[in-house]
Structures are given as structure tokens and as C-alpha cells.
Amino acid sequence: MKFPEEVFSSQRFREQGAAVIELIANCMEDSISEKQNKVIEMTDPGSAMREVQQWFDRCTVDDSKDVSKLFADIYQRTIRLHHPGYLGHQISPPLPDAALASLFSDFLNNGMGVFEMGIAGTAIERFVVKSLAKKMGFPESADGFLTSGGTLGNLTALLAARRAKAVGDVWESGVNRKTALLVSAQAHYCVDRSARVMGWGSEGVVKVPVKEDFTMDVEQLELTLQTARAEGLEVIAVVGSACSTATGTFDDLEGIGAFCQQHGLWFHVDGAHGAASVYSKQYADRVKGLHLADSVVMDFHKLLMTPALATAVVFKEEKWAAKNFAQKAEYLWDDANHVDDWHDLAKRTFECTKSMIALKVFTILAVHGERVFDENVTTLYRSASEFGGLLERAEDFELATLPQSNIVCFRFTPQGEHDLDLLNRKVREELLSTGEFYIVQTTLRGQVWLRTTIANPFTKISHFENLIDEIRRVGNGVFVD
Q1: CA 313-451-371 angle, 5° bins
Q2: How far is residue 12's CA from residue 21's CA, in Å, rounded to a whole number?
Q3: Which residue of 32, 75, 220, 322 is most buried, as measured by CB atoms within 10 A?
Q4: What angle do CA 272, 33, 35 make, to 5 degrees?
């Protein structure tokens, strides 16, 4: 091998790239058409590791070094999000155009910590964030950035809340008070993790009771706040869920926003999943009151067909997008005190070497327009409602709550005396082993429920009917003591 000429060969890249694109197109086509009849080929971790070694060994003795053959082998052991039977976790089957944007971004490899390292990417990110903020109902002065996932996005927003509302300069002096936030008992675990990362401990997350539909009971906020203060906690924020990861239900954002204004608290919305509702003309009311928030997190990769990770952190007031991480780094910029320089993104985010996340979103908008986001969100929400209707009418199934988004929680409840938790666990295990559908499970009020996220617009009512029939077949064959 002649280095570097051979490894950077443009001709080889043309040949291999064409073969890989053909492979990906075939994989997508086979999944959508269900020619590939399985969503997942389940295996154990040990077998997966042995297969990786086999792939590597084969490559080291193969003089052709055909990348498409390697990828074809890997594809046989991946989960297939474009398959209509994918009903698992909250991640989109990506649009082909967005996947090409990822390829182009990876080739450019612009580390966007400072403007000159990401001239196009930084401006594109600014455009994406500003257009999203407008969609959310924020003023023109609203600002933000993109980051790597909802967990990091929520932590960043809550750091801003701490800087805005906590007594003293915690960034300089450290934590010296018992600080806390209020959050629904159904909130995502990353909110709890954020509080612990900030040094607040388990006391730092005060849970507000939920109502029958698993949304925050806003009427309990006042009592919860006063109780926390009586216990010596400095409560600085309330976090609303839009929507809950477990159930897909939306907290009353208007009610929470009014409460926060009344008490001078920071209002953060974890809209990682459901804030994308703003793009749907039919379902935008799901996030009514979102404009009252001080900060919002939204993942483009959950409902908007964008390859992961692509998370927006939006602040109503521009200054909070800029002041989280005021530090000196002489090799990056001359004056760290100019924190309002939106074009130097390392001043605003955890990442310094940050990829061109926004290019994936911008490509979708440039090629298809916002309409494609509206159509996808609306299609998925409608499908979940149809699925919920089927389950509600079935005598041997129980819905946890009527679907409000594209998440549906239910369980199989056949007649007779059964350990329903064990039964539904076994049903899910059997579905996983056959691989024709992929669903997950959750625990609500101490009970095991099956959980589906309708992420694929090619999933139709016939697939839901087949899933119900398959659960019945599997469930009725399970022996439960």
C-alpha cells in the first residue's frame, strides 16, 4: 500500500461509494416493502462479539477490501428502523437526503468550535435554531444552538437556569446551597441525572404527583413548592414534559408557565420528543403554552426523520444561550469575555470539536420544506390514535391512557387468573426472538406495560392488527403459574 495516495484514492472512493449507496438503497427498499421480513435478528452479546472478530478477520485476508461487503454483513445484525414492524424506541427512520448530508458532513469534518473551522456549518446552525424558535412562538431575540442529544441538551438548559436563578455565582464559587427543581414523577431520567451532575444530589429533584393520565398535576405544584422550601431547598425551576418518554402524554405547559411566572421560577420544557408537534398543523395544540418557557429542548432525530444525534436547545432570552460557559481559551479566541459572539460555538456548548449537526436538518428543510415535518408528525400521531382505538375496542387488551402522541402503552389482559406482569414480559421476549416486530416495555405505577413508538410512516393499521394477533398467539401460549 502506498501511503497516502492509495488510502485517499478518489477513484476507489467513487467505486466503493457507489456500491455502498446501492446497498443502502436496497436495504431501505427491502425493509419498507417487507421483503426483509424481520425487524431485528436478535443475538446475545457474546455471539455479537465473535461475529465482529469474524468480520475483521475476513477483511484482513481479503485483498479486494470491498467495504460494501463488510457493510452488508453488518446490516444482517442491525435493527431496521425503516421496517414497518419497528415500533420500539424514540428514533426516526432517517430520510435518505439527511443520510447523504451526514456523509457529506463526515467528509468535511469541520470541528465547529470557532467560526473559521465551521463557516458554513455555523451559519446553517444559526438559521435552523432561529427558524425553530420562531415556530415555537418565541420572539425574534430568542437564540440557542444544537448539541449531541436530549440528555446533554437538558443539562445545558438547566445549567442556564442555575446561573439565572440560583443565589450566588455557582460557576465561580461552586455549590454551597441545597438547590432543587420540580418535575413530574413521569419525567425522563436525564432530568434527575442533570441535577446529580450539578451536585444537587437526590434531594435536587422534587417529584410532583401525576394525574390519572400520567401528566403533571399542576394543582399540586404550590404544595410541593412550599414543602420543598420548608425543607430548606432553594427551588429554582420547574421542568415540564412535552411529552413523557414513558407514556407520550403532555404536561399542562400553560399551567406550569403561569405558576413559574407567579413564583419567579425558571420554566424549562423537556420537549425532546414532543416539541416537534409545533410542525403539525393538526397537533400543534399538544404544546400549547410552549412559548412561555425560558428554555426548550427538542430532538430532530425523534420525530423529524433526522439521523441522530441532532438536538436543539432554545432560550427565550438570547443571553442565556451565551453565558453558560464563560472561560478563557487563548488558542481558540482572543477575548473570552465576548460571550455574545454567536459564531464561536465552543463558548456556548459542552462540545468544542462539534460536528455539523445542523446540516442534516437544513438539508431536509432545503429539499422538502417544513411541510415534510408536518406530514410526518401528523401521520405518526394519527397512526397511534388508530392503534389506540383498536386496543380500546379489544376486550383482551388494556390501554394505559389514550395516546396523545405517537407513543402507545398497553398490555395483554386475557380472561382468567394470570400474573399479568410476567405474561407481558414473556410476550415481549417472544416477539423479540421472532423479530417480526420490535416493541419495548415500561413500568407504570408498579405494573409492566408493553410500549410502542410509532416512528415509521409506512406502518399501517394492518400492521397493528397483525401485532395484536401475534401478541394473542404468543400470549395464549405462555404458561403462567
Answers
A1: 45
A2: 14
A3: 322
A4: 120
Strand boundaries in 37-194, DSSP class E: 143-147, 179-184
- Distance (Å, rounded) from C-alpha 150 to C-alpha 311? 6
Contact call for residues 253 and 240 (beta carbons, < 8 A)? yes
Residue-wise pLDDT tens digits, 209-262: 999 999 999 999 999 999 999 999 999 999 999 999 999 999 999 999 999 999
- Domains of the chain by start residue, with CATH: 10-36+41-78 (no CATH), 103-368 (3.40.640.10), 372-476 (3.90.1150.10)
- Compute the average pLDDT of residues 16-28: 97
**pLDDT above 70 covers what percent of the chain?**
95
CA distance 396 to 427: 14
Distance CA 393, CA 271 (A): 31
Strand 234-241 with 179-184, pairing: parallel
Least Cα distance to 161 among 388, 315, 336, 5 occurs for 315
> pTM for the whole thing?
0.94
The answer to whether the CB of 24 falls within 8 A of the CB of 75 is no
The three cell numbers of residue 389 are: 382505538
Nearest-5° angle of CA 356, CA 358, CA 360? 95
- Give percent above pLDDT 90 in the chain: 83
CA–CA separation, 265 and 278 (whole Å) = 24
Tell me which residue has cell 477483511: 59
186: which residues sit within 8 A by CB, 6+ positions away? 210, 214, 215, 216, 241, 244, 246, 247, 249
Give me the count of residues in the chain: 481
pLDDT at 328: 47
Where do we find the cell 407520550? 248
What is the rounded distance in angstroms from the CA atom of residue 270 to the CA atom of residue 295?
A: 9
Task: Quote the pLDDT of residue 173.
Answer: 77
Taking each helix axis from N to C terminus, what angle separates 189-197 and 150-165, rounded to the nearest 10 degrees?
50
Q: Which helix (H) or strand (E) holds 201?
A: none
CA distance 287 to 243: 9
What count of Cα atoms within 13 Å lies in the side-chain half-sphere of residue 378?
A: 12
Mean pLDDT of 96-125: 94
Distance between CA atoms of 277 and 117, rounded to whole angstroms?
33
Which is nearest to 311 in space by CA: 285, 350, 339?
350
Which of these, 478, 429, 421, 426, lies nearest to 449 by C-alpha position? 421
DSSP secondary structure code for residue 276 in this structure: G
